[in-house]
């Protein structure tokens, strides 16, 4: 696996994305999913439009590495799968 130096705000946004996704997935059926869906959309936009991806390090492999690191962090804090 490549080693990328992700900006803290990008890593935080991806980790928050996993936490929001989990909250949406485990929500009670009667709960309104609107707020969690909005949060996912906002985080998705922030992640996709981050300036990091415009540089030479913004490769598909880097995107996968970011997701793997963020998923592990979210799981470690109990907010991910």
Explain what the structure shows.
The chain has 81 residues and is mainly α. It has one domain. The protein has helices at residues 8-26, 34-48, 60-76. The longest helix is centred in the first third of the chain and has 19 residues, at 8-26. The radius of gyration is 13 Å and the shape is elongated. The chain starts with 7 loop residues before the first helix and ends in a 5-residue tail after the last helix. The mean pLDDT is 90.
Mean pLDDT: 90
For the largest beta-sheet, the strand count, sense and barrel status come to: none
Structure classification: mainly alpha
Total count of strands:
0
Q: Give the overall shape.
A: elongated
Low-confidence stretches: none
How many angstroms separate the termini?
22 Å
Q: What is the gyration radius calculated from CA atoms?
A: 13 Å
* Overall helicity: 55-70%
Number of helices: 3
Tell me the number of structural domains: 1
N to C succession of SSEs: HHH
Beta-strand share of residues: under 5%
